[in-house]
């Protein structure tokens, strides 16, 4: 394996706060983390590079934020991660960042709206694949960070 951890997140939601701190904490523990801003080489096809990085990682940590499902690239990444989880038994650790885990599993709240919008622009099969992966990650044990004082 090339990376200890592949970090999946929606940049606009968490890059400048939670994800930056998580990345630093993982690095402080001596882990080699795939973080798209640091590891992608110029000219590489983004989805191919991400897929390769997922394939050569021991663990995927998915930071599920309110707008995670609005991003096509996040959903493609998530689908790839969950494929590796089911076929190759890759470890997947979800972090439910200011979202309810049951909203992820049941594709409810802001996630329902995001998937409804994808259904107007993408193929039925593609969106179905994303929904399946999204609901599956919602069933996994993970961390729920709800923004209360105990999270700080």
Give a short overview.
The protein has a single domain (3-151), classed as 3-Layer(aba) Sandwich (Rossmann fold).
Write the layout of secondary structure elements.
Layout: E1 3-8, H1 11-14, H2 18-28, E2 33-34, H3 36-39, H4 46-55, E3 57-64, H5 72-88, E4 91-97, H6 101-105, H7 110-121, H8 124-139, E5 143-145
Parallel strand pairs: 1-2, 1-3, 3-4, 4-5
Helix pairs in contact: 4-5, 5-8
Identify the notable features of this structure and list them briefly.
8 helices; 52% helix; EC 3.2.2.6; alpha/beta; 152 residues; Toll_tir_struct_dom_sf; Rossmann fold; globular; NAD
Polypeptide structure, described:
- About 50% of the residues lie in helices and about 15% in strands.
- Helix 4 runs parallel beside helix 5 and helix 5 packs across helix 8.
- The protein has one domain: 3-Layer(aba) Sandwich (Rossmann fold).
- A 5-stranded parallel beta sheet has the order 2-1-3-4-5, with helices on both faces.
- It has 8 helices and 5 strands, in the order E-H-H-E-H-H-E-H-E-H-H-H-E.
- The mean pLDDT is about 90.
- It has about 150 residues and is of the alpha/beta class.
């Amino acid at each position: 394996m090339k990376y200890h951890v592949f970090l999946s997140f929606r940049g606009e939601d968490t890059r400048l706060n939670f994800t930056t701190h998580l990345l630093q904490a993982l690095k402080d523990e001596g882990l080699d983390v795939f973080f798209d801003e640091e590891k992608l080489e110029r000219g590489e096809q983004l989805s191919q590079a991400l897929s390769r990085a997922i394939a050569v990682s021991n663990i995927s940590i998915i930071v599920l934020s309110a707008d995670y499902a609005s991003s096509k690239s996040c959903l493609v990444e998530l689908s790839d991660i969950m494929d590796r989880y089911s076929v190759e038994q890759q470890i997947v650790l979800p972090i439910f960042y200011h979202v309810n885990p049951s909203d992820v599993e049941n594709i409810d709240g802001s996630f329902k709206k995001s998937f409804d919008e994808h259904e107007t622009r993408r193929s039925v099969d593609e969106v179905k694949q994303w929904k399946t992966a999204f609901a599956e990650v919602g069933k996994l044990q993970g961390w729920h960070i709800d923004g209360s004082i105990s999270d700080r």
